[in-house]
């Protein structure tokens, strides 16, 4: 039995290593394809490129492992079935679960290692990768401006161009929003027919040479409440043939930023940090809910509380139900017209203030809920990616024993199809969890719940020597079916 297990392990580990590196290469190429526009033309050093590829490789390992296990198990058992080695082993009285037993142990160790990697190495790799990508995006900002997409790489500015000519360096259809004035974010807009963006020699400023444009400027006086509303704003429009603007930059050279600025994101934390932060967010959420309840209680029941205090009742012992017995209409009729207007204006002011305070608390609660949700999703993701290794093994191994086709032909096609299905379901589940369509745990485990029964079904069919995917079996079945129908038709004609 030990020699058999050693033979199975040798047959499995070779394809596993090969398919793992193939999957890793494909996923890294996909990463480069997504960020090729950010990397080209930045003048990056070779060491920086190698470092970026290293972090990208570490990031895609948890995704490459399930695909490699699926493909390797398909190839291994497909080769054993195609060469009739699996049939000989079963003829010796060894069942398929016993054949799979050493590979199950290996898969369990791989799953545990994948969880350890996701919990300890992945946060560091994500932190390094995203901080490095941020630094790459900041280098040469003019080369990162895409056509018909707002560019946000420069602080306090938003830029969009309709078209650019790489040969001449000219941009066409330029629109620039200046957000340096915090009082009105969209009050300074410049539109130009064409222009050119360059970096100064000291690499501290971006020089914008704009041609045939117009600049709209709106000034607001927020602190002068004595002015009428229409006088609180000033508008200015400047039409120009040529305008040169200087925008301060941090520099076009590639500079490494402080990685601690990215450490607050969920993908940069391990399991203990995620749980600790979730508890902190829960406490903050409860504090905001308490503040909201206090604002609501004060806003709606303050008159009744004041009335209760006049009657000698403390605020702590005040019963909200007693508010219904407190009438303010009779009290309001005792005031003069001027006093009534003053009371109404004061009430409206308090309503607006309390509405703004309640809205601010609602926004804080919503922000804490979003943080709790993404951190909870990351907690589940560390387990689902590891569990996917086990699921894909129990899909690939019995499926390979059923189809009995080895090599890289049929197994690759089947593996890609299953992986696409898994990826689609996993993405849908994550989106459902993010949009609160499903609870977080249901959305994150949706792909596992769908594919696990399939793996169990295929394992059962393979253990019972099912002809589930044997085309000859279906051919024989339909031949018998057609012959039976022909026989029944002839009998019916003879009876007639």
List the helices and strands and how they pair.
Layout: H1 2-39, H2 46-82, H3 85-91, H4 96-138, E1 157-160, E2 163-165, E3 170-178, E4 188-199, E5 205-220, E6 233-248, H5 271-310, H6 329-332, H7 337-403, H8 410-434, H9 440-444, H10 446-463, H11 471-495
Antiparallel strand pairs: 1-3, 2-3, 3-4, 4-5, 5-6
Helix pairs in contact: 1-2, 1-4, 2-4, 2-7, 2-8, 4-7, 5-7, 7-8, 7-10, 8-10
Structural overview:
Strands 1, 2, 3, 4, 5 and 6 form a 6-stranded antiparallel β-sheet that branches. Helix 1 runs antiparallel to helix 2 and helix 7 (337-403) runs antiparallel to helix 8. The radius of gyration is 34 Å and the shape is extended. It is built from 11 helices and 6 strands. The model is unreliable at 304-326 (pLDDT under 50). 62% of the residues lie in helices and 12% in strands.
Describe this protein with a few key phrases.
496 residues, alpha+beta
Tally of DSSP helical segments: 11
Radius of gyration using CA atoms only: 34 Å
Binned, the helix content reads: 55-70%
Which structural class matches the secondary elements? Answer: alpha+beta
Please state roughly what percent of the residues sit in beta strands, choosing from under 5%, 5-15%, 15-25%, 25-35%, 35-45% or over 45%: 5-15%
Oligomer: single chain
Mean of the pLDDT scores? 76
Sequence stretches where pLDDT stays below 50 over 5 or more residues: 304-326
Envelope shape: extended
- Which series of helices and strands comes N to C? HHHHEEEEEEHHHHHHH
CA(first)-CA(last) distance: 65 Å
Secondary structure: number of strands: 6
> Main sheet?
6 strands, antiparallel
């Amino acid at each position: 039995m030990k020699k058999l297990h050693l033979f199975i392990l040798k047959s499995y580990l070779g394809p596993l290593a090969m398919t793992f590196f193939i999957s890793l290469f494909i996923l890294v190429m996909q990463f480069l394809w997504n960020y090729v526009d950010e990397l080209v033309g930045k003048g990056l050093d070779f060491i920086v490129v190698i470092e970026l590829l290293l972090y990208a490789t570490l990031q895609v390992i948890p995704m490459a492992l399930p695909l490699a296990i699926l493909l390797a198990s398909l190839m291994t058992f497909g080769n054993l079935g195609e060469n009739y080695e699996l049939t000989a082993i079963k003829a010796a009285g060894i069942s398929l679960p016993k054949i799979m037993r050493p590979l199950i142990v290996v898969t369990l160790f791989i799953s545990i290692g994948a969880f350890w990697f996701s919990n300890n190495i992945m946060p560091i790799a994500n932190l390094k990768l995203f901080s490095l990508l941020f630094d790459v995006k900041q280098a040469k900002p003019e080369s990162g401006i895409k056509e018909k997409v707002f560019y946000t790489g420069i602080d306090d500015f938003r830029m969009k161009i309709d078209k650019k000519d790489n040969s001449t360096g000219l941009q066409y259809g330029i629109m620039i929003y200046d957000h340096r004035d915090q009082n009105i974010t969209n009050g300074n807009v410049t539109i130009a027919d064409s222009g050119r963006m360059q970096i100064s020699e000291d690499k501290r400023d971006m020089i914008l040479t704009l041609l045939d444009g117009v600049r709209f400027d709106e000034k607001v006086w927020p602190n002068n409440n004595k002015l009428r509303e229409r006088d609180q704003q000033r508008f200015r429009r400047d039409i120009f043939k040529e305008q040169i603007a200087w925008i301060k930059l941090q520099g076009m050279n590639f500079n490494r930023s402080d990685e601690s600025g990215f450490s607050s994101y969920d993908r940069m934390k391990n399991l203990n940090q995620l749980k600790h932060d979730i508890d902190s967010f829960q406490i903050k959420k409860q504090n905001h809910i308490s503040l909201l309840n206090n604002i609501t209680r004060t806003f709606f029941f303050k008159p009744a509380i004041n009335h209760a205090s006049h009657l000698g009742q403390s605020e702590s012992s005040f019963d909200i139900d007693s508010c219904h017995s407190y009438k303010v209409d009779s009290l309001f009729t005792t005031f003069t017209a001027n006093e009534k207007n003053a009371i109404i204006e004061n009430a409206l002011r308090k309503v607006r203030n309390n509405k703004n305070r309640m809205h601010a608390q609602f926004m804080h609660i919503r922000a804490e809920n979003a943080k709790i949700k993404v951190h909870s999703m990351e907690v589940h993701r560390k387990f689902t990616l590891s569990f996917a290794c086990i699921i894909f093994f129990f899909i690939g191994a019995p499926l390979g024993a059923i189809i009995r086709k080895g090599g890289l032909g049929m197994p690759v096609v089947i593996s890609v199809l299953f992986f696409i299905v898994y990826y689609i379901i996993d993405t849908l589940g994550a989106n459902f969890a993010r949009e609160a369509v499903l609870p977080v745990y249901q959305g994150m485990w949706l792909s596992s719940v769908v594919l696990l029964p399939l793996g169990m079904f295929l394992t059962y069919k393979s253990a019972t020597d099912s002809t589930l995917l044997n085309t000859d079996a279906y051919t024989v079945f339909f031949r018998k079916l057609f012959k039976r129908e022909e026989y029944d038709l002839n009998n019916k004609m003879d009876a007639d």
